[in-house]
Amino acid sequence: MSSNRTLIRNGRFLIPGAEKPVLQGYMSIEDGTITYIGTDEPWSEAGAGTTTIVDGSRLLFLPGLVNTHGHAAMSLLRGYGDDLALQVWLRDKMWPMEAKFTAEDIYWGTSLSVLEMLKGGTTTFLDMYIHMDRVAEVAELSGIRAVLTRGVLGHCPPQEQSSKLAGAVQFARDWNGAAGGRITTMLSPHAPYTCPPDYIMKFVQAAHDYDLPMHTHMSETKREVEQNVAEYGLRPVQHLEKLGLFTRPSLVAHGVHLNDEEIAILARHEVGVSHNPGSNLKLASGIARVVDLQQAGVKVSLGTDSAASNNNLDLFEEMRLAALLHKGISGDPTAVPAPEALRMATEYGAASLFLKDVGRLAVGMKADFIALDIDQPHLLPHSDLLSHAVYSASARDVEHVWVDGKQVVKHGACLTLDEEAIRRKAQETFESLLKR
Amino acid sequence: MSSNRTLIRNGRFLIPGAEKPVLQGYMSIEDGTITYIGTDEPWSEAGAGTTTIVDGSRLLFLPGLVNTHGHAAMSLLRGYGDDLALQVWLRDKMWPMEAKFTAEDIYWGTSLSVLEMLKGGTTTFLDMYIHMDRVAEVAELSGIRAVLTRGVLGHCPPQEQSSKLAGAVQFARDWNGAAGGRITTMLSPHAPYTCPPDYIMKFVQAAHDYDLPMHTHMSETKREVEQNVAEYGLRPVQHLEKLGLFTRPSLVAHGVHLNDEEIAILARHEVGVSHNPGSNLKLASGIARVVDLQQAGVKVSLGTDSAASNNNLDLFEEMRLAALLHKGISGDPTAVPAPEALRMATEYGAASLFLKDVGRLAVGMKADFIALDIDQPHLLPHSDLLSHAVYSASARDVEHVWVDGKQVVKHGACLTLDEEAIRRKAQETFESLLKR
Fold first, then answer.
1. Where does this protein hold Zn(2+) (chains A, B) (predicted)?
2. Which run of H or E residues covers position B273?
């Protein structure tokens, strides 16, 4: 049988949760799947197909990072309005600019973000935005793994509501399983405070009809929780539970303001929470109860949110921030230890996006993995490489990236996207948006 | 007159606090001092000396970062003991290894840290540790600006106390003003909980005798504050005030657990506080009242603490962490805005170390400055470059570094230290420490 093989020799591989979390040895990949990982060389002679040999010394291999919440195209607004009160930021900065966004803008803004994410070791991202066909095009071209969903604002006339829902469903059906399975889709009423209850129920019905998971913003700010109680007599979790949203496989973004009862409901329905510490701090939304969520058995993963409120898409930073912040807040230096932070950014992220066979370096898993250059001052001495990946490394330490067994970043350069063109287009688009 | 000139052409320069914080234009340096910064080209023909021309397009220039608290040699223990309770970490991990440190180990550990700092844009660092002659050697060789002080643990017999104090004073006198003024010194009783009151008073007297500023750890953990009250009937700030420490120009590290009265005392005596957010979170020490300190007029700067509790020396990360954390904690998204965070890491840092003419890009200031490569996906579009420096950049974006007008990092490579040798020695030293 002829196949495309890659063999990593003499590498160090991170296996968080294992008794020995740093394995020194070999990993082989065939046709997009990990076929071997262990201390011995897996085959002694070349097979019938082509074998690419990678010298793994000086490199640390880990699963590709999984970003479970974001709005990629908004990188066009990076640095456009910082240090402002949330409502001022939205009303005076974000909304007027977003209203000008064309499908073409979305394409280049998404390209900028996907380029940043791939170069920074993120191999899977969830994107909730508009003009999703253009987002899907970028995902297809770039080689990244993507979970895509049209985010729908529902306070509009019934006809517009119907058309938006139909569009979101059409997109989800068109692209689910596309790009050789690299693209999957979800359905997303934007948030309980931006969609009327009956409209959310229509999304739930559609998700049942087409067997799609659901994603929504939830309980990001104290104000929206209070508003939900005032309008509907329920806090957001109970409200969404009542509307049936949690009868679908679901992932909510933020989950900052939750009480014990809400945490118990999320755990009971196996609802994932995408924790976005950087964005939540920057917008002063608050600090999610991550330790309590995890103790209740809720799957907590990590998201960057958009570069407009972060202001980068470096998932190493979110991983470290989660590990540090919840120690400081809880007063417990053993909270969110390094292996757990790494799993939040990889294994738990993949599970939160309902991706099977993604997020770990193990036989049978999809070959989404990255290699860090560990022969650098800030990653020495090599005392505990898992600790270094979480507490010392950054996106800029990523040397190589593979998705689905295909190398997409080599020596820091993206092989699938035209970086020069994207950088130029991103700048031109921003300047043009200012003038429109 | 013959002199060494550098001229930056077509650069963008950060001037936080100015009406236009991003100046596009030119900067000239002669013999270590900034002689011009402005929109017009400063001279039309070469002078009598050598002029080095730097093309500043695609680069963002900012003052070199100032790290106001650390223990450089402890980078040898990076990743050696994470996610542990503070006392376990100290007793089982740090102290046994530090007890083995030789002067030679200190040399290589410090070299590793200085290499990391210079490559990451830190041009000045404070170091409080032992075997300080070897630390000074590294500072002299590397070209970095350094404020050095022997940290003295005082619970020991009188003779040992005297000898340690004498050694600390001797070091401070020998090296103050060395390396063409790049090295200055301070005196440091380690902390109120590690030094008896009468011993601290002897340091104060010596600081008066030799006109030296003082640096100490203070109020890092709740426990040490409680212990201070139990032993001496006073909280640490009142305790140190009573011992006369604040009659000297002083900088305290951490200042996490302070009440209103203590903050007022620090403000009254113009005591600087080195805020170490990464280390404080990681060790679960708590979160300093930075917004309250700043409102009271206390000068708050930034420190990494050692790489054993951080776990890197990336001051961009501390800057961003300070800007994000205090928004999230205060609930005010306008807290610690980007220009203020940048000044904490530059201008306020220099002032906290009693360095005149350091920390800003302005005529007459010492030419300590760095250049970031801003033509990268995560730093585009160029909407607000000051925001990008604080919220999006990292140590790895540093392209060039100058200290005292001399270039020490060029295209990411250190010109003054042997990186290959330092990396090898750091790893060997760690392995040897494990075996000793």
1. 69, 71, 217, 305
2. strand B272-275
Mean pLDDT of the region A22-30: 96
Provide the 10 A C-beta neighbour count for residue A202.
19
Cβ neighbours of A76 in B, within 8 Å? 381
Q: How confident is the model at residue A101 (pLDDT cuts 50, 70, 90)?
A: very high
Cβ-contact B163, B141 below 8 angstroms: no
User: Residue B327: what residue type?
Assistant: K
> Would you call A312 and B120 a contact, using CB atoms and an 8 Å cutoff?
no
Q: Which residue of A has its CA nearest to B317?
A: A317
pLDDT digits (tens, 9 = 90+) for B221-237: 999 999 999 999 999 99
Cα–Cα distance between A303 and A319 in angstroms, integer? 9
Q: Does any CB of chain A come closer than 8 Å to the CB of residue B176?
A: no
| Model pLDDT, residue A322 | 98
Q: How far apart are CA A282 and CA B320, in angstroms?
A: 10
Closest listed residue to residue B360, CA positions, set B339, B337, B381 = B339
Q: Report angle CA A383, A294, A185 to the nearest 5 degrees.
A: 100
Residue A163 neighbours by CB under 8 Å, 6+ apart? none
Distance, in Å, from the CA atom of A312 to the CA atom of B357, rounded to the nearest integer, reads 33
Residues of chain A neighbouring B325 (CB-CB closer than 8 A): 281, 325
Would the pLDDT of A46 be above 60?
no
Quick one: which of B412, B430, B336 has its CA closest to B376?
A: B412
Calculate mean pLDDT across residues A412-434: 98
As a whole number of angstroms, the distance between CA B294 and CA B289 comes to 9
Distance between B345 CA and the closest CA of chain A, angstroms: 18
Give which of A192, A196, A210, A302 is closest to A249, Cα–Cα.
Answer: A210
User: Among residues of chain A, what percentage have pLDDT more than 70?
Assistant: 98
For the stretch A371-396, pLDDT in tens is: 999 999 999 999 999 999 999 999 99
Categorize the per-residue pLDDT at A412 as very low, low, confident or very high, splitting at 50, 70 and 90: very high
Average pLDDT over residues B322-330: 97
3-class secondary-structure state, position B393: coil
Contacts of A395 in chain B (CB under 8 A): 378, 394
Task: Report whether pLDDT(B281) > 90.
Answer: yes
Q: Do B377 and A422 touch (CB under 8 A)?
A: yes
CB contact under 8 A, B392 and A311: yes
Contacts across the A-B interface (CB distance below 8 Å): 209
Residues of chain A contacting residue B382, judged by C-beta atoms under 8 Å apart: 427, 430
| Alpha carbons A221 and A227: distance in angstroms, whole number | 10
Interior/surface letters B140-149, b for 16+ CB within 10 angstroms, e for the rest:
bebbbbbbbb
Selection from A196, A197, A136, A202 nearest residue A166 by Cα: A202
What domains lie within chain A, and their CATH numbers? 4-63+359-414 (2.30.40.10), 65-352 (3.20.20.140)
Q: Is A332 part of the contact surface with chain B (CB cutoff 8 Å)?
A: yes
Are A77 and B119 an interchain contact pair (Cβ–Cβ within 8 Å)?
A: no
Of B80, B86, B325, the CB nearest to A384: B80
Q: Check whether B60 has a pLDDT greater than 50.
A: yes
- Band of residue A50 on the pLDDT scale cut at 50, 70, 90: confident
Query: Rounded to whole angstroms, how far apart are CA atoms A1 and A12?
Result: 29
**H helix or E strand, kind and range, residue B150:** strand B145-152
